[in-house]
Design goal:
The complex is a heterodimer of chains A (92) and B (116). Chain A has 92 residues and is of the alpha/beta class. Chain A has helices spanning 16-23, 56-62, 75-84; strands at 3-7, 29-32, 51-55, 70-73, 87-91. Chain B is an alpha/beta fold and 116 residues long. Helices cover 34% and strands 18% of the residues of chain B. Classes of the chains: A alpha/beta (92), B alpha/beta (116). Chain A binds chain B through residues 1, 3, 15-16, 19, 22-25, 86-92, and chain B through 8, 10, 18, 41-42, 82-83, 100, 103-105, 107-116.
């Protein structure tokens, strides 16, 4: 079963993203929202072979460039992802 | 068949309400015979350290809740080996230690996952 991991905290203040990457499966994906979008600056993220999505408005708000290894989604896209994956794990 | 739920507890015991809430969710699920598992990850493994004294920081003891897991039929209690080693903690008697690959499979196995 595939899992969509939702991470909303900056990886530079907190260990959520690191732990998420450690336990992430190859069929899983990570959605970055809120300060989680700063996770795009985490060099470990593109090396794990896990799909990475980020909310477009969080990028825009923070003026973060979208790397070629990540995809941006809007809120309807967020909803669609939560349907496409078997379950959602929000790292609260 | 009820959906299975894995609760991932990753907060230290006295850092806020999350540790207690995670345990309460698991115990409530157990009382209703739901297929439920509990994983201690990151600072959550500090909940398993022995001989803690909650009274010293005016908190309620969590160890009674931890001991109640078995009574409520919660046998699937796990702790992350990496998190334990990072914090210099020994493997706890009350939880099965899992490495990262096993945790990945564990999350896969459950219908729903809740991380607190």
């Amino acid at each position: 079963m595939s899992t969509l991991h939702v991470v909303s905290h900056s990886p530079f203040a907190d260990s959520r993203l690191d732990s998420c990457l450690r336990v992430c499966g190859s069929a899983d994906a990570i959605l970055l929202c809120g300060d989680g979008a700063y996770g795009l600056h985490n060099p470990a993220l593109p090396t794990k072979g896990v799909k990475v999505f980020v909310l477009a408005e969080e990028l825009q708000a923070r003026n973060l460039p979208l790397p070629d290894w990540a995809d941006s989604v809007d809120y309807p896209g967020f909803v669609q992802l939560s349907i496409d994956y078997d379950k959602v794990n929000s790292w609260l | 068949m009820a959906k299975s739920l894995l609760v991932i507890s990753r907060q230290a015991p006295w850092s806020g309400p999350s540790a207690r809430e995670a345990l309460d969710i698991v115990l409530a699920g157990g009382a209703f015979d739901l297929p439920i598992g509990l994983l201690f990850l990151d600072d959550g493994v500090f909940q398993l350290a022995p001989q803690q004294d909650a009274k010293a920081v005016q908190q309620k003891d969590l160890s009674a809740n931890l001991q109640a897991l078995g009574l409520f039929g919660i046998d699937d209690v796990f702790a992350c080996r990496h998190s334990l080693a990072e914090r210099g903690l020994a493997s706890p008697a009350s939880a099965q230690t899992l490495d990262s690959a096993d945790i990945c499979k564990l999350i896969d196995r459950y219908d729903q996952v809740m991380t607190l």
